[in-house]
User: Fold this.
Amino acid sequence: MGHPDRVYRFSTLRRIEHGVLMVAFVVLAATGLPQKYPQSPISLALLQAMGGLETARIIHRAAAIALMLLALEHIGSVLYDLYVRRMPPSILPTREDFRNAWRALRYNLGLEGSPPRQGWFTFQEKFEYWALVWGLIIMGLTGFMLWNPITTARFLPGQWIPAAKVAHGSEALLAVLAILIWHVYHVHIRRFNRSMFTGYLSREEMEEDHPLALEAPSHPIPLDPLETRARARRFWAAYGTVAVLWLVGMVWFVSGEKTAVTTPGPIPDIARVRAYAPLTPTPVPTPSFLARATLNLGSSWEDGIGAFLEENCSFCHGPRRREGDLDLTAYEGVLKGGRSGPAVIPGAPGISPVLIWTAREDHPGRLRPSERAAIWLWIQNGAPR
Assistant:
């Protein structure tokens, strides 16, 4: 650490974190972008090499779990450094970083004679770090919505799920482009920075990129050993509680529901194909007709939809008979569905079996146009309870 020709910059823990992040990011990009652009020849080749779409999804989700565990560990280590070791929060943006960004722009345009003098972390490094934090938050939230669409639709309108898909894919593309353009240039092309692999940066590089860190090195605030132990006990009590809740939430995250979207396998009975893909599509009700139908049947499960389904469908799909392992008399049973999957897919009436099956001529229960319109609108609005 005290070598005259180099400066100790990153600890072993930070280098391990970077390695895990690097591997997880590459795996997520390699398995996620082919799903966003499935018709691309490169995507098809990657999916075939991985063993198909379902295998790519499994690998993608495993890498996402690794990233969530890494986030939990990193948050704990950063807070430990700040609270127990009393390290200065040098990664936080300051007004000086915005001034340095402006000076760097002027320097690159030839309007200033020298680049800005910066400290332990440059404004470029802070930008990358906080962009990564922001990206992880967006990817985590939208990933949860796509992984658990039925649960999401219970709290949010169904339109949020396709919106989450767009945000998830767009943020992933933005992250990949940022790494390929911004990170690769600043770390590998402009000058190959090996500090995240070796832990050290040469003194010459420090003088060029971080001169203020050499002039005024930062040190943790000295504390009494008793105070340090007391801080450590308080930290581990609080962080341990948060970590347990985080891990419990992750278990629920990955096992809370069977996703509504799966890759279909071969269908041996062609009659089932006709049942789910009728040759004559069901016409979409007009807005005025939908409004009139809602007045008659209600706009939520509690408002009348549930009572209607219980009255008309309970003989075959009630608690006693449960044809097709389906119970349409309870809200949870409608969303859970039966052997054919969910009876209602919130936000997607066109592919909800409760509307498809009741449109078949051989189905014992048929819906009048006004009833079909009301159920259509209820599902379109996210199937509210």
Q: What stands out?
A: The chain has 17 helices and two strands. The first strand starts at residue 6 and ends at 8.
